[in-house]
Design brief:
alpha/beta
Amino acid sequence: MEIRQLKYFMVLSEELHFHKAAEKLCIVQPALSKQLKLLEEELGIALLQRDKRNVKLTAAGKYFKAEIRVILDQLELVKSHTRLIQEGEKGEIRIGYVGSCIHTFLPDVLTEMHNSFPHIQTYLNEMTSSTQLEAIKNGELDIAFLRNPYPDPLYGSQLVFRETFSLVLPENHHTSEHNFQGLSQLANEEFILPTRADGELYYRVQLSICEDSGFSPRIAHETVHGHTVLNLVGHGLGITFLPTSFEEVSNAAVKFIPLPNINQRAEITALWNKENPNPSLKKLLNFIPRPE
């Protein structure tokens, strides 16, 4: 049974006239008659009742027509979707991100992507930078939004977002924006900083903020999760540095003192495998912003 035979039968079942159906199909009438005969022989049933004047569907033919219409419509849908997938307009993208992405640039990227390619589905997973890097290596993610990855020629990368750091203190801390003169006055405080294992470069960035002020921080706790850090600070377990955007989403008992004059900046980099064949990934890359 061939797809063309099914299509021939569908046209004939609509026209109920061999000559008109052959003209519509742009084939000669004997070819149409032959293909219908082969189809009936394979099925072992008569699909049409025909004489010199009339062509009618048999009861089996009416049932066959209804079922074949569904199958042919589904085939057309599959063909259409296959083209969309090949062109990157339908498919899926697996995205990893660190927490701050979701309250800064990432929702805008996803909105623009959805407006342009509504048939591309995104799967989002908040992950640490180190976990994202492993997932990219293992092919479990199509793209990662992480902090300060080491350059690697195997991967494409693009700086996506840059913002200032803020000093984060317990709400009742004696230091405030009014009496804050510099980080050196906090040299004896205990700090909550990210783990070295989650990203050597980001860890060094945070250390360097203190070192540039003439001291090495006394690290009391280590964690890479921003909201965990906020709660620890709010309970008086230390002070920290966080990207300033966390102030907008914090409900912990903390206060933020912006540090716009230091050299360090909190950065998010997009990372992907250059050999990734997913065509939808190429579409997403067009929507990734570049910081000013």
